[in-house]
Amino acid sequence: MRETAYNAYRRSSYVLAHTIISLPALVILSATFAATTFFAVGLAGGSEGFLFFFLTILAAFWAGSSFVTFLSGVVSHVMIGFTVVVAILAYFLLFSGFFIARDRIPLYWLWFHYLSLVKYPYEGVLQNEFEDPTKCFVRGIQMFDSSPLGQVPDAVKINLLKSMSGVLGFNVTAETCVTTGVDILKKQGITEMSKWSCLLITVAWGFLFRVLFYFTLLVGSKNKRR
C-alpha cells in the first residue's frame, strides 16, 4: 500500500507479479486433481490422454483464476464481487453444453455459449475421452437399456434385433456396435473444433482477462504515476 501510494512501481508490474506467483499453486492443484480423477474414474487415453487432461484442467483453472482476478478489479466490494462471480459462473455452466446441447440452445442465447469458460475445457475433455472411432460404447442389445424395453428378457431383445435387421436390410446382432465415441460427440454437438483448439482458446481466455485486469487498474486506480 505504501509503494502504491508513492507510485513506486507500475500497474503492469503488479499484474505480472500477481500472475507469476499464482502459477505454481495452479499447477499443483491441477496435477493433484488430474491424478486423483483420471485414474480413479478410469478415463481413456493412457499417458497421452492423462497429459492432455492435466493441461486442460490447468488451462481451466488459469482461465477461471484470471476471470475472478479481473472481476476483483471491476467490483471492489467483496460480497458484491462474490455474488457477481457466482451468477456469471452459473450461466457459464448452464450454456456450456453440459446441461443443454449446443443445437438445443435458443438462438438468442447462443452467443453466451461461445463466451462460456466451461464450454472449451468441457468439449476438450469429452473429445479426449471419445475421439477413438474404433471404440464402441453401445452394442446391439444394449440400445434398449435406456428405454422401457430395457426390462424385457434378453431373448426378446434378440428377436427384436432380428426383426429390425429385416426392416433395415442389414444384420444387427447383440454384438453389433451401434454407438461409437464419434456418435456421442455428434449428439452433444461437439463437432466445430479439435480438442487442442479448445485447449488454446481456454488459455487465451486467461490471458485476455489478465489484460483486462490491467486496464481496470489503469482506469480505476486513484494513484497516477508521474
From TrEMBL:
Keywords: Membrane, Transmembrane, Transmembrane helix, Transport
Domain spans labelled ABC-2 type transporter transmembrane: 1-130
UniProt topology in membrane: Multi-pass membrane protein
Any one Gene Ontology molecular-function term assigned to this protein's record: ABC-type transporter activity
Bilayer-crossing regions: 20-43, 50-72, 78-101, 196-217
Pfam families in the record: ABC2_membrane
Record GO cellular component, one term: membrane
Subcellular location: Membrane
Main location as per UniProt: membrane
PANTHER family with a match to the protein in the record: ABC TRANSPORTER G FAMILY MEMBER 20 (PTHR48041:SF109), ABC TRANSPORTER G FAMILY MEMBER 28 (PTHR48041)
Protein name, UniProt field: (rape) hypothetical protein
